[in-house]
Amino acid sequence: MKLGIMQPYFLPYIGYFQLIKAVDKYVIYDDVNFIKGGWINRNKILLNGNPFMINVPMQGASSFKKINEINVGVNKKKLLVIIEQAYKKAPYYSIVFPLISEIIQYDNDNLALFISNSIIKIAKYLHIDTEILLSSEIKKENDLKAQEKVISICKTLGATEYYNAIGGQELYNKNEFAQDNIELKFLKSESIEYSQFKNEFVPWLSILDVMMFNTSEEINVLLNGYIVYS
Fold it and tell me: Is the pTM here over 0.85, yes or no?
């Protein structure tokens, strides 16, 4: 069984969804510490031809708290105004904006659940049928840290292969996974390009950008554009 585990990221880039599609089960790692300055609560979209950072407003954010111990702030509608301004002339705006509006106006203010809901909704829109789980709902050895905790989740769920993004190569040891009969693999996205209005292409923006300029069927094909390294 192929398993992927990643923290919940807000409207992440396409590589995040490639990883979800590549595995049988995907765990949203919501019970680890929040990382300031990372991608948990923010991402980049295209605004007036340039990358522009959008943020989920938060309450009580701290690197001493777990992701599922933080709440979303009150001014979420500002996000919709910015997204509308950025993409109202995009070819699939009329299809995508209602979905994004539903995601951003989700009525649960727990940050982990807010972002997890968005990931699940977008995965469904992209025709990804991978089972998505929350780490906090899995019985595991919670006192473990880093790699040992990931291996514990893999063992609990019966994984024979663990997939991570290519950036995780420095975090994990192949031999440690092999001791528990788990094969460690890394996914690297290939170069992906599509039309963005008439601008010079800006790569690796939020999945929102991909959705605004491509049909869900076209994106599902793009999701196969990756290389797996052992």
Answer: yes
